[in-house]
């Protein structure tokens, strides 16, 4: 019985890259369906579903990736789909189709991005941001490499020791 309970308690967990690939595939499928069926709600719904699912099923340490990529992925998928389905003057069809689809999907994009961020924050996004900030700050315990280069000596060298005794 305990083995079954352990299996039921498991959740699907994607890496950041896996969630990104799945979001991209969902966005492309929704955009292709919206283009072929002429039903723009499908494009927005695909964005909402992909963004929310990625925030829910991604490993906690990869939430930062999932929080920032959905709008960019949607834009890339949109331009790709419009390029594949363009007829006539391709440049005008791509630009016009992209602009019209973005305008029609704007409420969905806003809702999907907001829900993605809310879910990611609940699951630990602020901790991921804190870890990133901590990793980007220079370590205070390490000596400054520029300082050694300016004196031409390394700490512990005879010249460095002599230099320090004359200063004191």
Structure description:
With 168 residues, the protein is mostly helical. It has helices at 2-9, 16-37, 41-57, 63-68, 70-85, 90-123, 125-136, 145-151, 158-167. Helix 2 packs antiparallel against helix 3, helix 3 runs parallel beside helix 6 and helix 5 packs antiparallel against helix 6. The protein starts with a helix and ends with a helix.
Search tags:
elongated, mainly alpha, single chain, 168 residues
Return the domain count.
Answer: 1
What structural class do you assign from the helix and strand content? mainly alpha
Percent helix range: over 70%
Distance between the termini: 74 Å
If you average the pLDDT, what whole number results?
Answer: 82
> What is the count of DSSP helices, taking H or I runs of 4+ residues?
9
Spans of 5+ residues with little confidence (pLDDT < 50)?
none
SSE blueprint:
Layout: H1 2-9, H2 16-37, H3 41-57, H4 63-68, H5 70-85, H6 90-123, H7 125-136, H8 145-151, H9 158-167
Briefly characterize the structure.
The protein is mostly helical and 168 residues long. Helix content is 79%, strand content 0%. It has one domain.
């Amino acid at each position: 019985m305990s083995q079954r309970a352990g299996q039921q308690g498991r959740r699907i967990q994607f890496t950041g890259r896996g969630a990104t690939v799945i979001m991209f595939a969902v966005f492309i499928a929704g955009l292709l369906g919206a283009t072929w069926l002429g039903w723009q709600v499908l494009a927005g719904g695909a964005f909402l579903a992909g963004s929310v699912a990625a925030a829910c099923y991604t490993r906690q340490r990869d939430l930062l990736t999932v929080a920032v990529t959905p709008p960019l992925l949607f834009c890339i998928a949109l331009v790709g789909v419009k390029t594949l389905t363009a007829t006539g003057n391709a440049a005008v069809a791509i630009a016009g189709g992209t602009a019209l689809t973005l305008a029609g999907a704007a409420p969905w994009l806003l809702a999907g991005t907001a829900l993605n961020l809310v879910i990611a924050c609940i699951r630990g996004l602020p901790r991921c941001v804190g870890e990133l900030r901590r990793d980007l700050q220079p370590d205070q315990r390490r000596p400054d490499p520029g300082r050694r280069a300016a004196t031409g000596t390394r700490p512990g060298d005879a010249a460095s020791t002599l230099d320090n005794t004359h200063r004191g």
